[in-house]
Amino acid sequence: MLSAQNISKNFITDNKVVPVLKNVSVDIHDGEFVSIVGRSGSGKTTLLNVLSTLVRPDGGELHYGTENLSALSEKRLNRLRQSDFSVIFQFHHLLPYLTVLENTLLPFMQSVRPVKKAAMEKALGCLERVGLADKADRLPGNLSGGEQQRVAIARALVKSSKVLFADEPTGSLDKGTGEKIMGLLSELNNDGLAVVMVTHDPVYAKMAGRSVHIEDGVIV
Amino acid sequence: MNILTIPMRNIRRKPSKTLLLLLVFSLGVMSIVALYEVSQVVGHSLEKKLTAFGANIIISPVSEKLSVSYGGLHMGDMLFDVHDLPEEETVAAIRSIALNDRLSAVAPNLVTMTRVNDTAVALVGVRWKDERGIKSYWAPKGTFPEKPDEVLVGSKAATKLQLKAGDRLSLLGRDFTVSGTLYDTGSDDDTVIFMNLSSLQELQGKPGATSFIEVAALCAGCPIEDIVAQLQEKLPGVEVKALQHVINQRMASIHFVQNLALTISVVILVTAAAMVGLSMMSAVSERKKDIGILRSLGYGKPQVFIIFCLEAGLIGMLSGVVGYLGGFGASFQVLEFLHMAEGGTPIFSSTHLLMAAGLFSLVTVLAAVYPAWKGAGVEPSAALVAL
């Protein structure tokens, strides 16, 4: 489904080239739950960003199905992020001035055409699924950290994505809330959604079907 | 819910910042609108006052001029086929043009020559009310004529004929009383004697005849050429001549007032637009996180660009409406303060209100183009640093 071959990525810090990913190769299969684990600074978040097309690699190739994503135009990558890929971040990242429902519907608000009723119903359904239908009109500032993360997951669900990329989704949450979020991710994975998750937590990493260990930019 | 929802909600997010920006830009718009309205009224008032300093269009019968020389002796210019104009019909035709509201005075004149104590002098018959409407600078020693047998003597003619207010003189066989003599005007008026037009028509045996008609036109609202063309259409076979130097002098004064207002307006507008631009620039830096979220959801550069431009445009539109209403109200106070309220009243126009909203939203969008372009150019990877 998603295949990264010999990916390399460098960052420039203090005029020095710092290699973050060194010829990394990894495959993500349909409906798979993969965790990426490693120490801080090992390159796991960069790998997730490359896989989710948010960061272009300096070398190597990234394939999604039959498409070579490394060669895709910006426009095509945007379209892919609109439809097939979803990303949730450690700090949930909702627009604070939009309501829960509006944040969930963000993927459909890209033009002056009003959001369709069907999309609205689907968004409410997704909020229902993450247990937040009754808070659809609230602003993110009035929600707990766990609830905000669930809104971010609902936003990923509403697009009917094929792959969900999660960067430390439980990193800022307490244990109980973190477990609920992990339970939700497992549930979604059971429904056929592929999940690629970066985590520090070995317990959560074991909940994934497969773990990829990365150290100093190399998969071990 | 659509892409407009994002800037609209963001404007509501920081009400104090939005209100401050709105206030600053509205004040700019208000100053511009007030300046515009005041300059229009002042310009119109100035034009009316300047019109009192003489005619700017002369209507006269068509005549043929011939320079006569014989045997090496130059005998001067001779006029052929000189006809008088019928006063009533000609004035009615002048008053019937489409731009009639731009005509502030129409003054018929009949000119003839006579002798007073063996001195040749020109007699000019006028309608006192119309003539004084054009020549408000006239100041008599004595009074203006009120009766048909009273005359007003130009300053040089009075000196030459040794006439003063109260003197009597015989003109074309009838006795007249000098009601007053004019102070120097520096014009042809100094050398002639003015009398009631009807009296001169009667003495000349030319009832209802005029030699030429002076017209004072207000030229700020339309080009003088339009007025002349309309007069020519209504008066075929009659010469209609615009006194360009008079018009240009007047228009220069009016244009000075309007250009001054325009220059100040442009400075205010540029300053306000720069403030919007700076504010949007800081908004782009503050909202890298938002850009990152949007880009991760598949929003392209054009959509991010549009969001920032829409945000600026909304502020510009609101400022345009608030500023126009405020500026319109303020123009009354300014005119009152300048003691020019009697010069005219600004007229509310919903078209102008819509134009102000449109124009100022366009200005703010233009001011936001660079910051928005910078914001749209932020790569998802760079925005992720902020996340």
From TrEMBL, chain A:
Highest rank taxon of the organism: Bacteria
GO molecular function, one term: ATP binding
CDD domains in the record: ABC_MJ0796_LolCDE_FtsE
Secretion signal span: none
Membrane spanning stretches: none
Keyword line: ATP-binding, Nucleotide-binding, Transport
Function per UniProt: Part of the ABC transporter FtsEX involved in cellular division. Important for assembly or stability of the septal ring.
Family the entry assigns: Belongs to the ABC transporter superfamily.
Protein name in the entry: Cell division ATP-binding protein FtsE
From TrEMBL, chain B:
Superkingdom, taxonomy of origin: Bacteria
Limits of the MacB-like periplasmic core domain: 18-216
Recorded topology in the membrane: Multi-pass membrane protein
Keywords, in A-Z order: Cell membrane, Membrane, Transmembrane, Transmembrane helix
Primary location group: membrane
Pfam families noted in UniProt: FtsX, MacB_PCD
InterPro entries: ABC3_permease_C, MacB_PCD, Macrolide_Exporter_MacB
Signal peptide boundaries: none
ABC3 transporter permease C-terminal domain boundaries: 263-379
Coiled coil: none
UniProt subcellular location: Cell membrane
Transmembrane annotation, as ranges: 260-284, 304-327, 347-370
GO cellular component: plasma membrane
Keyword 4Fe-4S belongs to the record: no
Protein family according to the UniProt entry: Belongs to the ABC-4 integral membrane protein family.
PANTHER family registered for this protein in UniProt: ABC TRANSPORTER PERMEASE YTRF, MEMBRANE COMPONENT OF TRANSPORTER-RELATED
Protein name: Putative ABC transport system permease protein
Organism: Desulfopila aestuarii DSM 18488
